[in-house]
Amino acid sequence: MDKIKISNLEVFCNHGVFKEENVLGQKFLVSAILYLDTREAGLTDNLEKSIHYGEICKYIENFMKKHTFKLIETAAEKISMNLLLNWDNLEQIDLEIKKPWAPIGIPIENVAVEISRKWHTAYIACGSNIGDKKKHLDDSIYALNQRETCRITKVSDFILTQPYGDVVQDDFLNGCLELKTILNPKELLTCLHEIENAEHRERIVKWGPRTLDLDIIFYDDLILADDDLIIPHIEMHKRDFVLKPLAQIIPYKRNPVNHKMVIEMLYDLQK
Asked: Where in this chain does the record put each 7,8-dihydro-6-hydroxymethylpterin-pyrophosphokinase domain (predicted)?
């Protein structure tokens, strides 16, 4: 991906743990690497197809001066998130904030915090088999899209499927969606649980009936195995109600674990 680099933007502002830092202020140096596709801008010589680095610098300066934080970690986090949310063609940012006058009582060139934040692509399976199933799915998609940190880019058709497991229950309405998000996997999981809870989801019986079920299937090409979250979804290759709608929107996406495309996994399941 292409990059625009901003090096050592000087900002005099009032961040720090000590009261004197908040009152007297000090110099900070901010550097940023902006990741985007500059191809069209380069071919057309059109600034609107790129990012106005002067506006980025002004935004960073104004933000640093307007707010007061104890930690430069907080300043870096909030600046990065706001830039990603407010500049449509910005895909990723690496941000560094240096504090040359850090009051630690011994000679030092500077103290710095450097972070990297980006838009991630996640694929979410959704299902419902209680009450107005379509409304539960529609409401969940709307609620997710209303989150500032989430942008739904594709939604599959909803399909009626038989329940998975041995519990006797009504048929499910299932679908999948593509999501751009700044949230990390655990934050995204919490977000999905909040939306499930708003639809009165109850976790009483495994694979039992539910008003709403939202599962992370893919998150970029991440492989993650924690006690409460496994990505890619460990059961996806066994579930046609996940693979069928997923194949509508990303048939050639490869599972980073078994290296099979979605359409291949669906074919294997149907053999």
From this structure: 206-217
